[in-house]
Amino acid sequence: MFNFAITTVGKILKLKQLLSKVQPVILCGGKGERLWPLSREEEPKQFLKIDGKRSLFQNTIVRTLKIFEETSILLITQENYLGILTEQIKSLDAQISYQIITEPNIRNTAPAIALAAQYVKQNTSLDLITVFPSDHHIEDLEDLTKTIVKAVSVGQAGEPVTIGVQPTRADTGYGYIQLGKKQGISYKIESFIEKPEKSEAVRLFSAGGFLWNSGIFVFKPSKLLEFEEKEFSQIAQITGEISKDFVPNEKILKVDADRYQKCPKISIDHAVMEKCKDSHVIPFGGGWSDVGSWPAVAKLFPKDSRNNFKKGDVRALNSKNCIVYADSRLVATVGTKDLSIIETKDAVLVMPNNEAENMRELMASLTASNHSALKSSLKVRRPWGFFESIFTENTYQVKRIIVDPGQALSLQKHKFRFEHWFVVSGEASVRVGDKEQTLREGHSIDIPVGEIHRLTNNTKTTLILIETQIGSYLGEDDIIRIKDNYGRIKDKEV
What we know:
Helices cover 26% and strands 31% of the residues. It is α/β, with parallel strands linked by helices.
């Protein structure tokens, strides 16, 4: 028994030593369009609390901390997600060491991972990076940990490693990895297959020897950045120049927009994994989902006696195999079958469950028409609380603004709009120009065009106010931030 205990302790220490040499990286910049209308550009899938508890991103943070116990996490996200990302980390109420690389524009996963590799290579003594998507669901943490350990062990030799998921069905929503020759605890990758048509997915599943592509990778930074394929070499060169501006211990590492824009827009799969002759894959079977469609969401939750997934105020009568998500009101179905019905305040999606993979066509149509429902919902979350659009016309709009206790909007100004604030509930500390004053319930104030202003809730209760905007342009990008508590800008002189 004693010898067994010593052996067990030795294995644990060896495991911790192995993982202590790894930099965990979480990619948080995706848009997650296939969960529209709940997912929007300003609040994508990874930040949604679908179960009402924690977001997919928060769950990824928790998993990563359990695997890499005392290691700082490197997060990569878009600049406009910085506020919601930091707020969700804070709300976990845990001691989390992290740094954030902010992308000024989307260039896909190859440039993002190259930025992480550059930072780790130049500023740490760590041997490897392990890359996780932020928007996946994984049930078996123990199995994942074992698989990550295997991948890290293989990755130490310098060859790129990915984790492939054991398929449970012929699914067209995932890319496939063909297993090559087994080499110890891993397999050489024979080939990658893009998301297939249904008949091809059935063939691959029936044939065996194929895994779903999970998007989890292990790389040796120096080896990755030396990969000589044309597109990735260009990315490595550009990100190398960008990374020279990174300050090693700074919480938020900002990326030069002009230089980053020059990176080819390409995934790490296409840029590296598919072209590397020595890439490896480790199989994983621990209950994985990319939560990439409404049917995938429904698989994660209990159903009623007729196999309906219901969330919110839903009445499903004589309905079967339906997915019904009610965000803001009662949704009732009668005699329906095999339908997805997703309701939000400003949009409703109705589709047969088997059409989920065609959501990309809908997103393309909304993008082509520049539809406002693609970018944001009527309720928009911010790190200080949220605002909700009540009424909008061409030259004016009305919003309800909720500011959490102890939070503050940025010190800002507008080029095109005049604003009027009316306090409904709570107490507001308001700065307009050089003057500061306190507004209570029933009080109001005007903010002229171009005047600096700030709204702060210094109390322990929620602040609610009505904002009326009047102007020639009312977009959210008419916010010129001067100072900000959430790291969305570098503070400027007033």
